[in-house]
Amino acid sequence: MRKPTSVDALDRLGRVRLSKHFFMRDMLHSEIAQFHGLTNVPDDPDLAIAAGTKLCEELLEPIQERWGRITIRSAYRSCEVNALGNRLQAEGKAGYNCASNEKNYGAHIWDRCDADGRMGAMACIAIPAFWDAHQNEGDWQILARWIDEKLDYSQLYFYPRLWAVNVGWHEKLKRRIDSYAAPKGRWR
Q: Who's near 182: CB < 8 A, 6+ residues apart?
C-alpha cells in the first residue's frame, strides 16, 4: 500500500483491521498532529500495518480480554509528528513526551525499523475498568505483573494518570518495565 495522499486513500488505510477489535484508524489519532495541523500517516503503510497487527494481536487483544475495554491514548506517530513532539518537549512545553525519532523507530514510529533493522510498535493505553478498581498508590504493578507473567511484551512504561501504560511489541523482546508512577524507576 502506498502512503495515503487523499482522503479516500486515508480512509482505506484507516479501515485496515489489525485484530479482532482494532483498526488502523484507532492508531492514527494524535493530539500533537491535530493541534499543529499535521497529517499523522505512515510513509510505509505496509510496515506500519505489520507491526501494528503484532502489537494488537499479541498484546492489546489479550489485555482487553482480561481487563476490559482499552482506550488508545497515543499509538502510531509519523516522523514529522514525533519530531515536533520531541522538539517541543525539549523547549519545555507541557504535555509533549516524545523521545527522539531514532529512539522511537520500532516503537511509536511503526513504519521505521530500529537501528538493528527490527520492527516494533507501541501504543499508550488506559483501561478505564482497571483504573476504577485499582487507584491506590502502586496499583499499576497489578497490571504490570499480569502482563509480565502472561504476555510476550518488549517494553512497558507506566504513568501516574489513569495508570496509562506504553505497551510495546518488538521483534527482539526486551521485557523491560519502567514506571513514572510511584514506585518510580525500573521495575524489571
A: 137, 138, 160
**DSSP-assigned beta bridge partners for residue 109:** 105
DSSP-assigned states of every residue in 75-118? ----HHHHHHHHHHHHTT-TT--PPPHHHHBTTTBTTS--TTS-
23 - beta bridge partners? Answer: 17
Strand 71-74, strand 120-126: pairing: antiparallel
C-alpha cell at position 95: 504535555
Grid cell at residue 151: 504476555
Best CA proximity match to 22, nearest among 79, 71, 78, 82: 71
pLDDT in tens, 132-184: 999 999 999 999 999 999 999 999 999 999 999 999 999 999 999 999 999 99
Q: Convert the pLDDT of each residue in 80-133 to its tens digit.
A: 999 998 888 778 776 678 889 999 999 999 999 999 999 999 999 999 999 999
Please give the grid coordinates belonging to residue 183. Answer: 514506585
Contacts of 114 (CB under 8 A, 6+ apart): 105, 106, 107, 120, 170
Whether the model pTM is above 0.85:
yes
> Which of 75, 76, 85 has its CA nearest to residue 42?
76
